[in-house]
Amino acid sequence: MSACRLTGCGILSQSGAQAPVYNRHPATNKEYGVKAIRNPLAIAILLGVSTAALAADVEVREAWVRGTVSGQQATGAFMEITSKSGATLVGAASPAAAITEIHEMKMDGGVMKMRAITRLALPAAQPVPLGPGGYHVMLINLKQPLKKGDSVPLTLQVEGEDKKIEAVEVKAEVRELGATAAPASAHKH
Ligand SMILES: [Cu+2]
Question: For the segment 8-54, what is each residue's pLDDT rounded down to a tens digit?
């Protein structure tokens, strides 16, 4: 909860009206549709994106981290997670930060607030967006500033329906501080 006082991720600076930027993603869903191409690896190759986290029947796309300036203590990591058979995100870790939490954002009396959650449901075959203004992975007490172009390793702890927890390794690309969404088109051209 201490992270709620940190404005480092840049999320708090967004108004509620701007928040659901990642909702535009359904437009790109059509292009890479999981139903159209069943092999996630094939999708990754076609799009040239770094996906490749395939444990626990979980696919992570478009993982990115908002870049920071020197002295900034915290930032957000964003991605789209799809579990083929249904799972729950129960934790995250990164060597880039001392503390890594899963956060949600909610409007509360007209103010956007974020708080840590311990479980995030990943319904079967349903892409769950983690984006500015919504769910995100919070990196707290950063060990160094994160510059555009850097790569941040993330480990997601995903609990399957059998209650077994698997680690899903993700490499998140650092985007500039002002980035608000994951422009899928930027990966193609
Ligand atoms: Cu947060």
Answer: 444 443 333 333 333 333 333 333 333 333 444 444 444 444 444 44
How many A from CA of 60 to the centre of ligand 1?
A: 19
- Are the CB atoms for 145 and 76 separated by under 8 Å? no
Q: Identify whether the C-beta of residue 34 lies closer than 8 Å to the C-beta of residue 124.
A: no
Does residue 188 lie in a domain region? no
The whole domain housing 138 covers 5-177
Distances (CA, A) of 181 to 2, 10, 80, 137: 25, 12, 11, 15
CB 49 within 8 A of CB 187: yes
Count of domains forming the chain = 1
CATH number at residue 38: 2.60.40.1890
User: How many angstroms separate the alpha carbon of residue 32 from the centre of ligand 1?
Assistant: 29
Strands 58-66, 165-175: pairing kind: parallel
